[in-house]
Write a structure and sequence with these properties.
The protein is an all-alpha fold. The protein has 9 helices and no strands. 77% of the residues lie in helices and 0% in strands. 29% of the residues are buried.
Length: 207
C-alpha cells in the first residue's frame, strides 16, 4: 500500500518535461564539443583542406546520426508526456532513468566515432539506443497501468505509441546486426532509419 508521500510525490508532468529539455539540450551540445576545425598550421593548400575535411567527415556523420537519435527520443518522450494528465512517483523515476540513458549518448557517440571500424563500438552505441527505447516503452506501459492518461486518450493512441517504439527498436537491431558485414553499412542504415522517422512523415503529410 502506498504511503501518503508516495501518493503526492512526482506528479507534475511539466517538471519532468523541463528536466528533459535541459538534459537533451546538454547532450546535443556535448556531441559536437570534440569536433574541431583542421589546424591552421597543417593547411597549406586547397588540397590539404579538402583532405583534412574528408578526414573528419566520418565523425560528422556519427554526430549527425546521434543528433537524429536524440531528436527522435526527445519527440517520443514529449509525445508521451503530452498524453498524460499527471505523473506518479514511479513514473517520474522511470523517466529519470530514461534521461540517464540519454546522458550516455555523447559517450557512445564518441566511442563509435573514434573506433568506427570496430563492431564492439557499434554494439555499445546500439545498446545505448536499446536501453533508451526499452525505458521509454516501460514508461508508457507504467503510465497506462497507473491510469495517468488524459480522459480523451483512445486505445489506438496507446497502441500507436508502443508500436512506434517496438518497430524502431527492431529496425535499429537489424541495423546493428549489419555490422557483421561492415560497421559503415550499419551506420548508414541507422541514419536512413532515423531520416525516415524524422523527415518522411512530413513529406507524406504534404503530398
Amino acid at each position: 500500500m502506498e504511503t501518503a508521500y508516495n501518493r503526492i510525490a512526482g506528479q507534475n508532468i511539466e517538471r519532468i518535461s523541463a528536466l528533459s529539455d535541459g538534459i537533451f539540450a546538454v547532450a546535443m551540445t556535448l556531441l559536437f564539443l570534440d569536433l574541431h576545425v583542421p589546424a591552421v598550421a597543417s593547411i597549406h593548400s586547397e588540397h590539404d583542406l579538402e583532405r583534412a575535411l574528408l578526414t573528419i567527415a566520418p565523425d560528422i556523420l556519427v554526430e549527425f546520426m546521434s543528433m537524429l537519435t536524440l531528436g527522435i527520443f526527445w519527440v517520443g518522450q514529449q509525445t508521451q508526456l503530452n498524453q498524460l494528465a499527471r505523473s506518479h512517483r514511479s513514473l517520474s523515476w522511470t523517466h529519470i532513468f530514461f534521461l540517464f540513458s540519454i546522458t550516455l549518448v555523447p559517450f557512445s557517440t564518441r566511442l563509435l566515432a573514434d573506433f568506427m571500424v570496430y563492431r564492439l563500438a557499434l554494439i555499445v552505441y546500439w545498446f545505448n539506443m536499446l536501453i533508451a527505447g526499452a525505458l521509454l516503452y516501460l514508461a508508457w506501459n507504467r503510465a497506462m497501468r497507473l491510469g495517468l492518461a488524459k480522459p480523451d486518450i483512445t486505445p489506438q493512441v496507446s497502441v500507436a505509441i508502443k508500436n512506434r517504439i517496438v518497430i524502431a527498436q527492431a529496425l535499429y537491431a537489424f541495423g546493428a546486426l549489419l555490422c557483421i558485414i561492415d560497421t559503415y553499412v550499419s551506420i548508414v542504415f541507422i541514419v536512413l532509419i532515423q531520416l525516415n522517422y524524422a523527415i518522411a512523415p512530413q513529406f507524406r503529410r504534404h503530398r
